[in-house]
UniProtKB/TrEMBL annotation:
Organism expressing this protein natively: Peteryoungia ipomoeae
GO cellular component: cytosol
UniProt-listed Enzyme Commission number(s): 4.2.1.24
PANTHER family, alphabetized: DELTA-AMINOLEVULINIC ACID DEHYDRATASE (PTHR11458)
UniProt protein name: Delta-aminolevulinic acid dehydratase
Length: 338
């Protein structure tokens, strides 16, 4: 028999990676990561009033919605199998002040939507953020005193807000403020109030990123923000510091860890998963979403493929789930495939 060995066989030691890529059935058989509806958390924006669906210019396809419409959205999400929603309020400007005191009220907009969703759709999870930025007149995540975001007073307020949100029915408290010590303080506050079953999804590594712009439009803080958030968010250059931040949150009792933004920080997702073994989530933030939508609208990329590829990247980087504005769109696609 004639020897058909090729020099490529000799170079590779007869190991050819393309053997496992030659057919669709084979590629599917060896696929390492999968995206399912169980990986999706849908962030929604809520406004006062009724029967309101208000498009957000910087986020094509995303709307601010009144509580009644948010309940309808929750039903839709549950029907698609999406496990949870993350809710963000756009409260009236006259209710915002230096300390974000509206966050403490049991009947504030955020707590209203939580109660309404849990009553109408009890089988879907509700994740709420205790950060003060939707409630402050200056757009910061904490209390502003003499030009400084004060840590400890802010933490005291976050604890009270977390208890109020849990009282309203929140399943998971997700503090995004990046104040020191807030995870442990919130855990103790929740337990003291009898909310031992309420989890904490820590925004463990939230970076001082340029990708939040459309979100700030969505909650009407972009025109309010005085200065920047670099004294409490993490410098994008600092990976080791981010892991240290997360380690402290783990020690303080976080049940889950989040990386925000998502795609520019896949290395951090991986490092947190490898370091701590806790469930890790990425927030595919508004700027990431809007970039894909804008490029697709101009015909520069295939928007559907870009959407799916980025979400799969999070899974490959070790994420157990993704907060994404694409959640409903992806869930519908996955349902058709099944």
């Amino acid at each position: 028999m004639m020897d058909k060995t090729h020099r490529v066989d000799e170079v590779t030691g007869h190991r050819r990676m393309r053997r496992l890529r030659k057919a669709d059935w084979q590629r599917r058989m060896v696929q390492e990561n999968y995206l399912t509806v169980d990986d999706l958390i849908w962030p929604i924006f809520v406004v006062p009033g009724t029967n309101i669906l208000e498009p957000i210019t910087a986020m094509p396809g995303v709307n601010r919605m009144s509580v009644d419409k948010a309940v309808e959205a929750a039903k839709r999400a549950a029907d698609l199998g999406i496990p949870a929603l993350a809710t963000f309020p756009n409260v009236e400007m006259e209710l915002r002040d230096q300390t974000g005191s509206e966050v403490l009220k049991s009947n504030n907009l955020l707590n209203q939507v939580t109660t309404a969703i849990k009553k109408a759709v009890p089988n879907i999870g509700v994740i709420t953020d205790v950060a003060l930025d939707p409630f402050t007149s200056h757009g910061h995540d904490g209390i502003l005193r003499d030009g400084e975001i004060v840590n400890d007073e802010t933490v005291d307020q976050l604890v009270r807000a977390a208890v109020a949100q849990a009282d309203a029915g929140s399943d998971i408290i997700a503090p995004s403020d990046m104040m020191d010590g807030r995870i442990g303080a919130i855990r103790r506050g929740l337990d003291a109030a009898g909310h031992q079953s309420v989890g904490i999804m820590s925004y463990a590594t939230k970076f001082a990123s340029c990708h939040y712009g459309p979100y700030r439009e969505a909650i009407s803080t972009s025109g309010l923000l005085k200065g920047d958030k670099k004294t409490y968010y993490i410098d994008p250059a600092n990976g080791t510091q981010a892991v240290r931040d997360a380690a402290l949150d783990v020690e303080e009792g976080a049940d889950m860890l989040m990386v925000k933004p998502g795609l520019p920080y896949l290395d951090i997702c991986w490092r947190l998963k490898e370091s701590f073994g806790l469930p890790v989530f990425a927030y595919q933030v508004s700027g990431e979403y809007s970039q894909i939508k804008a490029a697709a609208a101009n015909g520069w990329i295939d928007g559907e493929r870009a959407m799916l590829e980025t979400l799969m990247c999070f899974k490959r980087a070790g994420c157990d789930g993704i907060l994404t504005y694409f959640a409903v769109e992806v869930a519908q696609m996955l349902a058709k495939r099944n």
